[in-house]
Structure formats: C-alpha cells, structure tokens
Design goal:
There is one protein chain. The chain has about 210 residues and is an alpha+beta fold. It has one domain. Strands 1, 2, 5, 6, 7, 8 and 9 form a seven-stranded mixed β-sheet that branches. Strands 3-4 form a two-stranded antiparallel sheet.
C-alpha cells in the first residue's frame, strides 16, 4: 500500500511560468476514450463498496488482488508502462484520518503518475544524495480536464479540490516505497512535475 506522509511533512505548491495547454498524452494505439474509462470507473465503484469504499482504491490492492480482478487490471492499464492511474472517484488518502479524494467531481477523471523504476528515466528518478524522488504526472484526457484553460501547474492545482489530494499523487509516485523495484524511498521527499500538452514540464508540488 501507499505510505502516507508524516504529520509534520510540509507541502509546497510551486508556480510555473510560460506554459499553457493540457497535459501531454503518450501515444497508446487504440486507447480507450474518456467516456469508456468513465463508464469503467463508475461501474468499478458501484461493484466494490467494501470497507466503506476503500475497496475502490485500485492502487492499494495487492498483486494477488489485482490478479483476481480483471476490472482492476483494465483500469490499471490505462496510463501505460511504469505509470499508475490516480482516479479521483476511486482514490483514497491514508494516515491519521483516512479519506477519499475530496471533490472528485471537480477534478480530472484520471491523473497518470510515474512510479518507481529500478533504472532512472526521464520521468522518474531517485536522487539518493538529496533523498528526493522526482516524478512526472499528467492529465490523461486533457480535453476533458475541467482546468484545461488554466496555465501551467494550475491545470491541476486549480481543480485539485483539496490540498490533501496532492498527497495521493505524491504517495503514488513512491508506490510501495519502491520495494517492487528493489528501492527503499520511505523517507524520501518528492517533487512532482506536471507534463504539459507541448511536452514541457513544470513543478507541480514538493513535499519537504
């Protein structure tokens, strides 16, 4: 499961300049449409009401749970390799007072977050010297993003609903503390960079 931030952890939302447009999408061949994914999400939520709704959270499921759940597998595949979808209608934040994504209806349908990899990439790396993760995130369906006309980081920040929702994105960038790929990033800080439609990246959020 994702590990939550310590209570003392501070959140800093960073501005950006000179960037506009919605998040870039990776070419994914015959990718599902916005309407298809929304239908899958609504159906999954309705079919998994257990534990007060925590069973919605596909990113908190074990490999065995996922292997036995074709609907979860389908949702987990929508963002591409080395990424996980954060779906506000399904996502939860853990630690202290567990709660689901605040104001999911006002946020994008899906955020794609790059997750730990054994070999650093242009989208995810662990700066061991500074104990910091640097990871990318983008809006999967930029044309349906309720903040598509905003500039830079506001394409996410203006529709985030609540600051605690950033923690869900950050926790996903350190999925399972990196243990799946032989890392231990449980104590690392995280910088998220938003990938814009034109391919540029702007700082979205940093925890410290």
């Amino acid at each position: 499961m994702r590990t939550s931030w310590p209570a003392a952890c501070a959140l800093v939302i960073l501005g950006a300049s000179g960037a506009s447009g919605a998040a870039a999408q990776t070419a994914r061949g015959s990718a599902p449409t916005f309407d298809q994914v929304k239908e899958w999400v609504v159906a999954y939520r309705a079919a998994h009401p257990g534990r007060g709704g925590k069973d919605w959270d596909i990113n908190a499921k074990s490999p065995a749970d996922i292997a036995a759940d074709p609907a979860a597998q389908r949702l987990l595949s929508i963002c591409g390799p080395d990424q996980r979808p954060v779906i506000p209608l399904l996502a939860w934040e853990y630690g202290g007072f567990d709660h689901q994504w605040v104001d999911a209806a006002g946020s994008a349908l899906v955020y794609c977050v790059y997750i730990p990899v054994a070999k650093p990439s242009s989208h995810w790396r662990f700066d061991e010297a500074n104990n910091r993760i640097v990871a990318d995130v983008y809006v999967l369906f930029p044309d349906q993003n309720p903040c598509k006309d905003k500039k830079g980081k506001d394409q996410v920040a203006a529709c985030i609903g609540d600051a605690s929702n950033f923690e869900i994105l950050v926790d996903t960038a350190s999925l399972n503390d990196g243990s799946d790929v032989g890392l231990n990033v449980s104590e690392a800080s995280t910088e998220l960079r938003l990938v814009l439609r034109n391919g540029t990246k702007v700082q979205l959020v940093v925890d410290s």
